[in-house]
Structure formats: C-alpha cells, structure tokens
Amino acid sequence: MRWWCWIVLAAAMVGCAPKGERLEVSSEPAIDAAQATIEARREYIRKFVKEHAENISKFAMKFAKSDDLTKEIRRLIDEAEPATKKKHAQGALILMQKDDLSAVYADRNDAPIFVTPAGIAPQMARLTTELESLASHGLAIDTSRWQAARAAYRDVALAEPELFAFTPEESAIIAQFIETQQLDIDDPVSVRDLIAKLVDEQTPVPRLREAVLTHAKEMTRTALAAARLEIETADLAMRFARAMAFENMTHLTAEETAAIGRKPTDAKYAKLAQNRTTAWFRDLARVSDLVMPHKAQPEPDDAPPVEDDDSLDNTQVDVDSGEALNAQNNQAVAERMAAEIHTLQTIDDLIDAIYPAHPDYKRLMAAHDTYASLPDWGRVVCPAKMRLGASYKCIPNLKRRLAAEGYYAIDDANSAQNDANSQQNVANSAQDGTNSAQNDANSAQNDVFDDAVRQALHDYLETHQMVYDAEKGYTNGVWTSLNTPRTTRLAQIDENLRRWHKSYIVKSPYYIFINVPEFYGEVWRDGDRVYRFPIVVGNARKSCNSETKTWTYINATPLMHARMLYVEYNPYWNVPGRIEQEDYIKKINADPNWLQDHGFEYYSEKGYTILRQLPSESNALGRVKFIFPNAHATFMHDSPKKGLFRYPIRAFSHGCMRVWEPLELAKRILTYDGQWRDSIATDIDDYVTRRFVLKNRFDVFIDYFTVKADEAGRVHFFADPYRYVRDALEPPTAKERSCTPRKFTFVPRERAAGGEDVAIDED
C-alpha cells in the first residue's frame, strides 16, 4: 500500500524510521537460554511487552510515514499552467514561473521549503507577514488562492497521533507472538522486525494495524493540503520578490547587459527579471534548509566572492565618456548586489535584500496603512481671506478635515457638550433656554478661526508645497488640495511605493540623493542624512518629438545613478546646441558686440566649435559645478538667479540642477574626500578655473517621488511636474499623447570665431 515502507526485516526498519532513531529497549542483562526455564523466558517477555508498550505504539505509528507530500508537490507542479498561457482551465493552478519552480524542487527531490506538519515553518514567519501585507507595498497581487490554501491546511493539519494503548489481552497476544516467532527481544533489529509484523496484513493485533492505517490516511489527506500550500506559497513568494526588486533594470550585470544586447526588448527584460527571481528563490530554499534541513539535498554552489568596487574610485577615466562610465558604474553595483545576496544566511536577510535601500520606503509603507484605515473626508471651502478671531460657517468642517490627517486635534469635549445640550433641549423644550444659549456659545467657539486652526492649516500648506500669500489669501489651490479624496491620496502613495521598487538607489556608505518633485537634495552618510539643500530642476516645457510624434518634457531632469567625479570652481558654461539655437544665436548674429558684452565666446577644440560663457558672477553655472558623468550630460551647479529658490515648486532649468549654497556643498564633498583646505574659499575669487578630481568617488541618485513621509510621520504630497505619477494612475489616451512636430529651422552662426560652423542637434 502507498502508506507503507514494506522493506523486510532490519533494513526495512532502518529505512522507515527517521534517521538516527531507534526503539529504546531494556538494558537488563540477557537470560542465558541454556539456564533459564521456559517459564522464566515467558515472564521476561511479558515484562518486556508491559514496560515497552508505549514505545511499541509510538514506533508502530511511524510506519504510517508516507512520501505523499513530495509526490503531491511534484504532481501539482506538473499539472499547473504557466501564467504566460493565454487561456487557463477553470480552477487550474497558475504559476508565474512554472519551469523555474519545477527545476528548484526537482533539485531538492521535491522536498518542501515552507510547510511543516504544523503549518508554514516558523522560520518563514517574516515571509508570511510580508505576503499578508502586500498592499502595504502598493502591490495588487491576488493572495486569495494562498489564503484559501492556508485555511484548508489548518483544517486538516495533524497533531501528534493519539497514543495507542494495548489491552491486557493484546499484550498477552504480543508476548505469545514473540515466543512463537522466537524473536530475540534483546536485539534492536529483531524488535523492529517484530513491530513490522505487528502492523502488516497478518498482524496478530488487528486494532493496532487499523490505527496505523487510519493515521496513514489522515497523513495522506494532510499531504494533499500541505502540497497545495507549499506551491501556493512558493509562487506567491516569487511574485512578491519579482515585483519588489527584480523587475528593476536600473542596474545590470555584465552578463545581463550581454543578454539584452544593443536593442533590448520587453521580452529580454522579462527574462532577466525571471532569472533574478529564480536565483533569489534558490537562495531562499538554501537558507531554509540551514534551519530545517532535508535529506538528499545537493550542496549549494560556492557563492561568488563579494567584489569591492573601490577600484573604480581611483581609476583613470575619460571624463567625457559619460555613457560608458555610467554603464561601468551600474554594472559594478549590480554585480556586487547579486554577489551579496548569495552570501546571506537568514530569511530576514533575503527579504531585506529586496527592500528599497532607503528609510523613506518603510515610512511610506506606514503612510499607506494609515490612509487605508482612514474614513473618507467631506468637502470644505472657506473664504480666501479669514481674520483671526472671526467666525466662519466653514470652520467646523475645516477642523474635521484637518483632523482627518492629524493636523488638528478636535476638541471632543465641546462637541460632546453640544450633543448633550441638544438632547436636553428636546427633552425639556419648555425650559428657559439655558441649554440653547450654551449650545450657541459652544457653536460660536467652534466657528472661530483661531491660532490653532490657522497653524494646522499652515502645517498642511507646508507639507503640500504651498505658501500663504498675504495678498491673495487661501487660494483655490488650497481648497482643491484639501478636497482631494482620500482614495486619490492612497492611490498616489501606492504608485510611489511601486516607483521605489524600480528606484536607482542602492546601499551606499556616502551618497547624494535628489528627489526631483521635492526640489531638494540630501547628503547621506552611513545611513544618516547629514545635509539637505534646495535645488532647482528641469522645467515642464513640452515639446513634440519628431521621431515618435508624441509629447515629451524636453527639459525634464533625467533620473539616474551616477558617481561624482570632480568638483570645479569658476567653471565655463558650454552652451548646449539646442539652447544656443533657442536663446542666443539670433542675438549673437544681430549684435557684433554681444559675445564680448555678455561674457561669451566661441571656442574650438578637436574640430568642434561650441559657444561657452566665461567664468564670472553672471555665469549661468555660478561659482562651482559638480560633475557626475552620465549619458544625459546633466550635472549640478551654482546659479546667479537666487530668486528662483524662494518658490516652493522650482522647475525652471533646462535639465541640470541648480544648488542653493553650492559652496557649502562643495566644502562638504571635498572635506569628505580629504582635499578641503580653508584657502580654497578665497582662492576662487580670482575666477580661475580649478578642478578637484575626487579620490573617493561616491554615488549620486536622482529619482522621482511625489509622496514622502518624514521622520515625524507627516505625509508630504509634492508636485508632479512631469506627470509621471498622474499618467501612471490615469494613462493619457493615444490622442492626448500624439502631436505634430513643428518644422525646425536651423540658424547658422555668422560670428563663430575659432572654428568652422557645425551642425547643432535639434534636441
């Protein structure tokens, strides 16, 4: 029968019993058969059966062990349908990466990774918590099948079988059986053989065999549910990991870059995500076996050593080869990350490895949970200008609205008193109106625009990139923001969580993080933010792309990961060809003195002529620039237009990032790099260009998040200048995206001293 290990005699007993397990037997010295009487022998056997009845029962139940779990795991995988299949049979088990899952389980002889007789293994508690909270990650992955499998397994999961108790008659039968079979009960192998005979079809104790068979059937039923839970958990874990981290293509290893080639396609990216997910899942199985080892497991391949990419810091590089250098940087990061995952030894570490590497992510998860639990709020509109101490009918609604997100603490005492007085008025309508007067007093107090309400409203403005205008008051934008539905805010939070899953940020000891919609940059060191500075980013000007015939934000600050290479004081500004055509060429052609009067010149090098602005107070790059080579030729720099920093929403540049107090940032960077000296602060006043190539290059991450929860738990909602979040939530139609390119007219240079005219790209 399928429940049994029917292997004869001692070999059978060793094979069926758990490794290292043996039946405990009496340690009394054996009776010399030559000297013992038959009666003494019988008494010895009876005593043996009596003393070891419980052990015999427990050992007999172990014959109910079956291989149904591994068989069912294999059957479910083989019968499952891949998610890529266009149509699925009703009720079919659908696996995201069926072939990969099948290979992992085949390598481990289909032994379970997640399930134990008591449910999901205790060491998987963290993973279980994550799978129960996918919504907190902004993930809309269906978990209903997994939840149903958990419930079904709980219904059939077995506890330890009840101890089988022999009756006196059965004990006597066993003793007689031992005597008849002439079994040596002092020999463990013979004892195992005895128990095998007690549970086989010719058993002298039918009730024992029936108990074992019943337990075996229960184990079989449990195995069916356990296998289903095992595979559902495996599939959901892979879906979770892939969505969290492995569809992020901002960093590619050399092998992955070779796989996608020069013309990457969605299918090639999907294959990379699949391979990454499978590798992580294998590590999950490996780590699981460290805690709950299974037999016949192949030893994991030696993990590749973690390569330290500090060698990049001092490598001589061509500072102009931005695209190649950026690819080199990202490749080094990707290979380091992949190598580190293979060295992890705990489930928690493997889960942490797929989390975005920044504390803002977990705070945003908490914000999701808060907004998911909040009730919907009502609309509120107040006058644009409100005087402190004056009463307005909208104030009670405004208080409730601000209280909904924690900006204002409702005075429940007054509200409760109003309700109590109202009830008293109804009951005692003939009274002298004292209660009514009290209600009026409370209501009047509730309608007052006081300091507490004003402060709460201004706190709201601060977290939504708005400032109070003393002349215009609280404009329509304020009320439009306040009346944005809770569900919309929650959707924005979720989309930002998903953006974190494809973030450029990785673990780094020292880095600059720029969040474009926040219009701020931050310096992070050893996990702590050590400096924060306002920035101006690319404007939201739209242009029609001549190739795709769709609208694009031509000056949008590009999102990237790069590494800071050098800091340059008193820089020249090499004017991009597009900006020369759009802003300068007509002025230059019209006025012979324009170049000299405005501090510009044409400069030729290597056969190419560019327009550049000389170092000066009015130089567009200011006193210092920060170069991190990249494919977009984007960088950070000073700006003579300090007035732009007074606006909360600062999207004004052509794509580069202008920095508030850039000399302070430069000092911090050079101090970190060991190159700062106090004389630099005065040396730069001579307007001589000085470049400091960094000895220790560090990461620069430029990303785009429109929602952020700060350290105090306040949730900030930022502008969406390039509509990345809005378009993700409400994709524009093809008609809205399409456009007709305008004809570009190239204006030739008439005064390009220093070299021949060269063509200038349209963009």
Topology (SSEs and partners):
Blueprint: H1 9-16, H2 38-51, H3 53-61, H4 68-79, E1 81-82, E2 94-95, H5 98-107, E3 115-116, E4 119-120, H6 125-132, H7 144-156, H8 168-181, H9 188-198, H10 206-246, H11 254-260, H12 266-291, H13 322-341, H14 347-353, H15 359-373, H16 395-404, H17 412-427, H18 434-446, H19 451-462, H20 476-482, H21 486-500, E5 510-515, E6 520-525, E7 528-538, E8 542-544, E9 551-553, E10 560-563, E11 566-569, E12 573-574, H22 577-590, H23 594-597, E13 600-605, E14 608-613, E15 624-627, E16 636-637, E17 651-653, E18 657-659, H24 662-673, H25 680-683, E19 690-693, E20 699-703, E21 707-709, E22 715-717, H26 724-729, H27 734-737
Parallel strand pairs: 1-2, 5-20, 7-17, 16-18
Antiparallel strand pairs: 3-4, 5-6, 6-7, 7-18, 8-9, 10-20, 11-15, 11-19, 12-14, 13-14, 15-16, 21-22
Helix pairs in contact: 1-9, 2-8, 4-5, 4-10, 7-10, 10-12, 15-21, 16-19, 17-18
Structure commentary:
The chain is about 45% helix and about 10% strand. The protein is built from 27 helices and 22 strands. Strands 5, 6, 7, 10, 11, 15, 16, 17, 18, 19 and 20 form an eleven-stranded mixed beta sheet that branches. Strands 12-14-13 form a three-stranded antiparallel beta sheet. Strand 3 (about 115) and strand 4 form a beta hairpin. The longest helix has about 40 residues, at about 205-245. The protein is elongated and about 130 Å long. The N and C termini lie far apart (about 75 Å).
